Amino acid sequence: FFNYPWEDIERYSKRVMVGSDYPVGMNSPENIYEHVRMLPVSDETRRDISADTARSFVERFKPGFFDRACA
Fold first, then answer.
1. What is the sign, positive or negative, of the torsion defined by CA atoms of 65, 68, 69, 71?
2. Do 7 and 42 touch, CB atoms closer than 8 A?
3. Which of 17, 19, 47, 70 has the lowest tally of Cβ within 10 angstroms?
């Protein structure tokens, strides 16, 4: 799943996003995120790679996107 030392995943968690080519890939999104929940990293890193980094990426290129989507 990750081919880097855990220390690097922690250090660069603001640059790492979990992705999938589902339904073509080998796993369902539920299995992928379950795997992320079991990683030996901090809760902050888990939040970064499973949601926060992707949210920041979208906000960078589409400011206010989530404000409109959640309204």
1. positive
2. no
3. 70
Q: What angle do CA 38, 39, 42 make, to 5 degrees?
A: 110
Cα angle: 63, vertex 32, 2; to 5 degrees: 90
Rounded to whole angstroms, the Cα distance separating 26 from 29 reads 10
Query: Would you give per-residue pLDDT tens digits along the chain (71 residues)?
Result: 567 888 999 999 999 888 777 666 667 788 888 888 999 999 999 999 999 999 999 999 999 988 875 65
Residue recorded with tokens 């379950």: 34
CB-count burial class (<10 Å; 0-12, 13-18, 19+) for 54: middle
DSSP 3: -
